[in-house]
From TrEMBL:
One GO molecular-function entry: peptide transmembrane transporter activity
Domain Solute-binding protein family: 102-432
Keywords per UniProt: Signal, Transport
GO cellular component: ATP-binding cassette (ABC) transporter complex; periplasmic space
Protein's recorded name: Solute-binding protein family 5 domain-containing protein
Length: 524
């Protein structure tokens, strides 16, 4: 909701210039009393409610987001909005990703890996406590990892398939034994799948998250905001802000206006990049520009005709002018990549020219496939980058005889249910922000329905091999899916953050699932 401009008029202002007729002293005393009461009522109204558009206090920070969580349970609900709010802030794992994307200790003080690369021994913190009062121990590690395998229902649970068993050796010593060596497992543990739970804190994860992080849930105002407050039991440094309000905006213009009108302190991700100049030229604000792991993907339903035909997918990829799309839909901010690998990954290669813009070649391939004029459903989430990109894509495809009917779906609930889970689409557009998500193309049950046994074999070899073999193997995977036109990678999202001047601790690059609140501060 766009913040309204409000002025408060006090009754006492009517008496700023005394009338010429003298008033009895008793009446003046009464009026002064009424003035005091009015001021008190007005000030109370101004400060009531943590989600009101008033200037936050030094102990409160309000951050604007564009995508609201459907609920608070990332063990049963896919999508990035839940871990964005809760991972590292409420939930913590044994390890985490630092600002450079490196795995570093969190609830584990340290760990060792056996020579056969199958056994991890974690030495745990002995001072961490869950927000319900339960003490964190190795039994919680065992419970949490086993629960991924038995109770989680989201796609990320596959990361735990490689675990053979977990032993609680001592309260501060957990041992995880893998069925085979895995380069991916420890990295995955730095994401949502590695979150630690207590057996006494999983009764209602959709509304009541229980973690060991610096914050705990205060309240979730559906359709408006998520409010976190500092965890008094937190084992680490006390966060600067005692209250954090995550405010959700469906309208990107309203998101910008909320910062301009002092309604919020930070825009977590600017959804109208062409508006950056208005902040860059205003010394009230600081603009942070970096990169992310968010590949904006035009996904093809490889399991459904006509997109099951490689020639059709290739034709669509040739038909789209991605450089012009980036300039039109995202003000030229971002990077053309050509596959499911951002430059922050060691196996990155620039594949953006694999399918240059070539409408004539697109028409030839469509004719060869016997599909000169296909009609396709382009079902996209109602997010700015997706809607704006869809308009450009529809226009480009029309030039080669393809009709793309755009359907906007509420995100996350409807899009996740019908497209991601139900596979009811021909094409879609969404940013895949999870790090190291190339492996999704090895899962034929994933929503793009891509099946290539060679890719699956390469992924397995890369996971079990040496670091050098991992890099080589994953480069082959990226090249193969690009050649197959398994999807069309439109561009890599930039990290565009705007904050009030003096807000510190904002990450330049977004390399994990989390919008980490623990480092935020305010310059004195």
């Amino acid at each position: 909701m766009l913040a309204e401009s409000r002025e408060w008029f006090f009754w006492g202002r009517r008496w700023a210039t005394p009338p010429t007729t003298p008033r009895p002293t008793k009446l003046i005393t009464v009026l002064r009393a009424l003035l005091a009461i009015a001021v008190l009522i007005t000030l109370t109204a101004c400060s009531a409610g943590s989600t009101a558009y008033s200037s936050p206090s030094a102990a409160t920070i309000t951050i604007g987001f564009s995508a609201e969580p459907a609920n608070l349970d990332f063990t049963s609900t896919d999508g990035a909005a839940i871990p964005q709010a809760l991972l590292y802030n409420v939930y913590q794992g044994l390890v985490r990703l630092d600002a450079q994307g490196k795995v570093v200790p969190l609830l584990a003080k340290s760990w060792t890996l056996s020579e056969d690369r199958r056994t991890y021994d974690f030495q745990l913190r002995d001072d961490a406590t869950f927000t319900n009062g339960a003490h964190f121990t190795a039994e919680d590690v065992k419970f949490s990892i086993n629960r991924v395998k038995t109770a989680w229902t989201v796609s990320t649970k596959a990361s735990m398939d490689v675990v053979d068993h977990v032993d609680a050796v001592a309260p501060d010593h957990a041992r995880v034994v893998l069925s085979k060596p895995s380069n991916n497992w420890l990295f995955a543990m730095a994401g949502r799948v590695g979150a630690m739970f207590t057996p006494t804190g999983t009764a209602d994860l959709r509304t009541t998250p229980i973690g060991t992080g610096p914050y705990q849930l205060d309240r979730f105002n559906r359709g408006d905001s998520l409010v976190l407050k500092a965890n008094p039991r937190y084992w680490g440094p006390k966060p600067t802000f005692g209250t954090v309000v995550l405010k959700y905006f469906a309208d990107p213009t309203a998101l910008n206006n909320a910062l301009l009108s002092n309604g919020i302190d930070v825009i977590s991700s600017v959804q109208t990049p062409d508006s950056l100049s208005r902040f860059e030229t205003d010394d009230r604000f600081t603009v942070v520009q970096g990169t992310t792991t968010g590949e904006v993907v035009l996904s093809f339903n490889n399991a459904r005709a006509p997109l099951s035909d490689k020639r059709v997918r290739q034709a669509l990829t040739y038909a789209i002018d991605r450089r012009a799309l980036l300039a039109t839909a995202w003000a030229g901010k971002g990077l053309l990549i050509g596959s499911m690998v951002p430059p922050s990954d060691p196996w990155y290669e620039d594949l953006s020219n694999r399918y240059p813009y070539d409408p004539d070649r697109a028409r030839e391939l469509l004719a060869q496939a016997g599909q000169p004029h296909p009609v396709l459903r382009l079902r996209v989430p109602n997010l700015p980058y997706a809607v704006d990109s869809a308009q450009v894509i529809r226009s480009d495809l029309a030039k080669v005889g393809v009709t793309a009917n755009i359907e906007e779906l509420d995100f996350p609930a409807v899009w996740l249910k019908e497209v991601f889970a139900g596979h009811d689409y021909d094409m879609s557009i969404v940013a895949h922000v999870e790090p190291h998500d190339l492996a999704t193309f090895g899962n034929p049950n994933y929503y793009w329905g891509y099946r290539n046994p060679r890719v699956g074999a390469l992924l397995a070899q890369a996971d079990a091999g040496t670091p050098e073999q991992q890099v080589s193997g994953l480069r082959q995977v990226a090249s193969t899916i690009s050649e197959d036109a398994a999807a069309d990678w439109l561009f890599l999202l930039p990290n565009l953050v705007v904050a009030k001047a003096g807000i510190t601790g904002l990450a330049r690059d977004q390399v994990s699932d989390s919008f980490d609140l623990s480092n935020l501060g305010r310059a004195s």
